[in-house]
């Protein structure tokens, strides 16, 4: 029985994690839940799963619901003695400190929050190695790579090829995207996700973030990461080896399978998910990325090459820009261009927890200032 804490339990990944727990009651037990400020949903989950410890990050909401609140409460939850696995699926860098402290406490990390490694991979992965903990990725692309790389070492890898659906604007040119609405951008062709990650998929920012995350998870250089467009979302990523062999992981676009693998690794248990069959999707296609129309991946690669605090700027500025677009305060094309403008003003520093948190705040403030 693995005892699980879920940071971000009321979001898309959190609720799907609870679905996997329901399917494996003999293997998984939830012992703690944390959300940002949705107290009603959190308390309902706690009742359903008989969880005694529930935390809200927002201290005002926590006081309203008479629950522990704030960063210290999240850290205490993630480091408790009776916890085996911490699922990190909170938005933004608020997941960084709980993740670091959970690693130091020897917990297995099931990671869904891109921000942890994008902003802080330079300090997080050395801690993972130092404390001998396991970090299993939940993102479908990184789960696919994790599965394909079992038994292989970084020096055997030629490249990691992440697949992208192309989002709702695949095939369009830059001039056609000037008047894109929020409703159009949220109409993803294959995945059902939260608002910010859906916008990231439309801009291909999600693939930029994922290339940086892959660099840290699998110990490769950013130049060894590639992205191809795969509209059917059946092949979740490829690993290409130095001898020319290529392995891929295939399945329906359903996040519950990578969540299950992350929680139960290295076991593979039966579940209620529909299995994929090759004859159900006889035509799988692949296309190059149009980097002129979608410059986000190139921005991410530049941030990773510079290193230090620059990936943190890329991540924070993008989060602010995507949310501004969702609020109708920024145009679709301005998401990438404004992120680039913020990056151009940053003087990178060595990555430490303190410098990263300060940089995150600086990048958000700078982007907001550019919108005034």
Strand proportion: 5-15%
Extended strand count = 10
Rounded to the nearest angstrom, the radius of gyration is 20 Å
| Approximate shape | globular
Uncertain segments are none
Quote the distance from N terminus to C terminus.
52 Å
Main beta sheet, described?
A: 6 strands, parallel
Enumerate the strands of the largest sheet in spatial order, edge to edge or round the barrel. Answer: 3-2-1-4-5-6
Helix content: 40-55%
Q: H/E series, N to C? A: EHEHEHHEHEHEHEHHHEEEHHHHH
Tell me the structural class: alpha/beta
Task: State the helix count.
Answer: 15
Nearest-integer average pLDDT: 95
Explain how this protein is built.
With 372 residues, the protein is of the alpha/beta class. The protein is 45% helix and 14% strand. The chain has a 6-stranded parallel sheet with strand order 3-2-1-4-5-6, sandwiched between helices. Strands 8-7-9-10 form a 4-stranded mixed sheet, with helices on one face. α2 (39-48) links the parallel β2 (28-35) and β3 (54-56). α6 packs antiparallel against α13. The longest helix is centred in the C-terminal third of the chain and has 19 residues, at 353-371. The protein is globular, with a radius of gyration of 20 Å. The mean pLDDT is 95.
């Amino acid at each position: 029985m693995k005892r699980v804490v879920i940071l971000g339990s009321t979001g898309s990944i959190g609720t799907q994690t609870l679905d996997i727990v329901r399917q494996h009651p003999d293997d998984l037990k939830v012992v703690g839940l944390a959300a940002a400020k949705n107290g009603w949903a959190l308390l309902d989950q706690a009742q359903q799963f008989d969880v005694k410890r529930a935390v809200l990050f927002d201290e005002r909401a926590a006081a309203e619901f008479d629950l522990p609140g704030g960063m210290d409460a999240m850290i205490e939850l993630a480091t408790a003695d009776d916890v085996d696995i911490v699922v990190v699926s909170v938005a933004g860098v608020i997941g960084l400190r709980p993740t670091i402290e959970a690693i130091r406490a020897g917990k297995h990390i099931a990671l869904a929050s891109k921000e942890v490694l994008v902003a802080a991979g330079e300090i997080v992965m050395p801690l993972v190695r130092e404390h001998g903990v396991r970090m299993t990725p939940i993102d479908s692309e990184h789960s696919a790579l994790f599965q394909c790389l079992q038994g292989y070492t970084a020096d055997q890898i030629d490249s990691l090829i992440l697949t992208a659906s192309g989002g709702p604007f695949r095939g369009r040119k830059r001039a056609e995207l000037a008047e894109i609405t929020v409703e159009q951008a949220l109409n993803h062709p294959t995945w059902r996700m939260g608002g910010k990650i859906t916008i990231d998929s439309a801009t291909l920012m999600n693939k930029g973030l994922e290339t940086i995350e892959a660099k840290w998870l699998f110990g490769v250089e950013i130049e060894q990461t590639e992205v191809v467009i795969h509209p059917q979302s059946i092949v979740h990523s490829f690993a290409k080896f130095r001898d020319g062999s290529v392995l891929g992981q295939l399945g329906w676009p359903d996040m519950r399978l990578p969540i299950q693998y992350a929680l139960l690794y290295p076991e593979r248990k039966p579940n209620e998910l529909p299995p994929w069959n090759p004859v159900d999707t006889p035509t799988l296609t692949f296309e190059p990325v149009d980097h002129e129309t979608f410059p986000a991946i190139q921005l991410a690669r530049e941030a990773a090459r510079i290193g230090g605090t620059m990936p943190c700027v890329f991540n924070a500025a993008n989060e602010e820009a995507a949310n501004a677009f969702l609020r109708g305060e920024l145009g679709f094309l301005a998401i990438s261009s404004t992120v680039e403008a913020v990056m151009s003003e940053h003087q990178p520093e060595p990555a430490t927890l303190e410098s990263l948190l300060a940089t995150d705040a600086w990048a958000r403030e700078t982007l907001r200032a550019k919108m005034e």
